[in-house]
Amino acid sequence: MLTNKVLAVLAVAAQILIFSTDTDAACKVPPELQDKDWVYEYTDVSTGETMTKTLSFGSTTIQQGISLEVQGSNINAWTCLSDLTISDTESVAVFKSDITFDTFLNNNRRLYLCMRFTKVTDDLFYFYLMSDKNSLVTPKERVFSPVSEPETNADVCSTYCSYGDPKPMIRTLRKPDTADKLPTDADLCENCGDSCIVSDIDDCAPNPCLNGGQCIDGVDLFTCNCATGYEGKICDRNIDDCAPNPCLNGGQCIDGVDLYTCNCAAGYEGKICDRIPCTVSGKEPFTTGPTDGSYNYMDTITYSCNPGYEVQSGNRERTCQPDGTWSGSTLVCAAVKCQDPENGQFTKEQTSPGYNFPDGVTYSCIFGYEVQSGDLERSCQADGTWSGNPPVCKMTIDFFCETLLEKIENKGKSEKRSAESPEESSEIDTRGKGKANGKLKNLRKGRRCGYYKALEALILETCLES
């Protein structure tokens, strides 16, 4: 009795190990499919519509892309149970669902996917689900759902990969953003474990594709992936880039390899003769910049005002536009203005309605004076200031002496006339002041006259010596 119990426990343990969701290291997904996302395209079993999803494989699992509902359970995780290598490019892999489901017949049932893979290129595979349609799952799909678990060493093809009519339809796995094409002979290969590869010669030896075309070998055929600019079965035709003519305004199109050149009619330019050149003729007054020449669309020219001039209107920078005109308006430069200059000391006053660069002013000292400091000639400068400094004039010694001698001479003549015809003097004190006050005033006046005469004699001596 004890022996029977031990055997029963061992049997259960064996079942757990066999049907555990842990990875079976002996079963693997084709290495090119592992750890990548693939564009999965197939025909829906129920509706016949073309479906596109993302299908991802691990080394031994389907990580995403196949999700089924059965008896309230969502089956979306699959582990490789068994595989069969048929050739270098053909293999069969059986995946069991990691999640179980219950039915009224029994519990803990699983789904199985039998996938027959064929490698076309590293970027393109196709495969078939080689089981009958299963009405238990939603959406309907070709999956195997046995009532009891198959034996551990059950034959892959006969156990998991059986089907009747209608036969499975092709499904493709393509790397994103690639364009490899299925061969024309891609078809369901029966039986499950038989190779569909037949002896084939290399139709790409030697390469029949011209002008750098890439040859893809098939079964008794080849396909050329032509280089850019060529077409045809063997890439022998240069695509006419001049059809229709892209050149505008009467331009002549010259075809090249994946390019064209336009010979533009007179007065037009640009890749498709859609632009008129801009021209510059002559120099704008008081400016520095282009004086002549022809310019292309979007070319830029720059002007600046000459020293002493500033922008009055217009634009310093202008751009050639498609219609052959320049953006903005012509730069107009006007002379820099200076404020009225200061008048000098003992100079004639300057009068003018205004001064601009490079106007000048000329000062002059009044009669009898000469320059002591400053400048008699000054000019309005480029920065709006005046050169030099206002002049300062002083009286000349000759003019001073001449004036002094003339005054002395006039004074002498006046005194002589007074002596020859004296006038009666008026009373000194007309207001009844005392005679003492009158004497004091005469005394002071006499003293001043003495001082003046002494000073006059000194200045006279100096003037005569000079």
Automatic annotation (TrEMBL):
Single GO term (MF): Notch binding
Positions of the Sushi domain: 271-335, 336-395
CDD domains named in the record: CCP, EGF_CA
Superkingdom assignment: Eukaryota
Gene3D superfamilies per UniProt: Complement Module, domain 1, Laminin
Positions of the EGF-like domain: 200-236, 238-274
Disordered: annotated span: 412-439
Membrane-spanning parts: none
Disulfide bridges in this chain: 226-235, 264-273
Keyword Signal set for record: yes
Residues in the signal sequence: 1-25
Name of this chain's protein: Uncharacterized protein
Native source species: Mytilus galloprovincialis (Mediterranean mussel)
Lineage, broadest ranks: Eukaryota, Metazoa, Spiralia, Lophotrochozoa, Mollusca
